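hey so i finally got around to running the thing on that chain from the lab meeting. sorry it took forever, my laptop kept dying and i had to restart like 3 times. anyway pasting the input first so we r on the same page abt which one it is
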Amino acid sequence: MPRIALIHAVAVAMPPVHEAFRQLWPEAECVDILDTSLSRDREREGRLTETMIGRFLLLAKYAEDNGAAGILFTCSAFGEAIERAAERAQVPVLKPNEAMFAAALAAGKRLGMLATFAPSVAGMEEEFRDMAGAAGSKAALSSFCVPGAMKALQSGDGAEHDQLLAIAAPRFADHDAVLLAHFSTSRAAAAVKAAVRCPVLTAPGAAVTKLKGLIG
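ok and heres what got predicted. didnt touch it at all, straight out
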């Protein structure tokens, strides 16, 4: 039973990734590390600071010291900090969206992404462009941050969250795939799939599958 540390910046990311592990890798022992101040500080600062990056290094080291065989970060607004943590770690470290982006590149060249946390969008788009460039792909990613969806989810109204994403999804109906940007948005997959005909990609399942392959 390999121990997998799940590091969260928002509580709403926790249920989707636990469900993905339950379905795809039930043998793994998942432990949660939650610091909700990370998302608040990231939104207030408007950028990743060195202090914030240092906190990610500490969180990753804590996970390793606690016996983690792998680390999965579940918040998509901290790409550079996660990369820095991965450079120092002695175990596999995954950014939340890298596996989903790889699947998207295989799906086609016109891709749409629905997000609910605005500070994460620019970093995710940059991460996607870097992956596309490294793969020699000319795929392009268009993003839309759905107003009010994150607030609805955090207030406990998951149905409203899902409906808002489903209403927004048809703007990407002519694309090759629609990506649900965050772990928390994956809960809206069924609603979004009902609104478009193209494939709908989510992050938790892809990340769990990749991590399982890395650790074995």
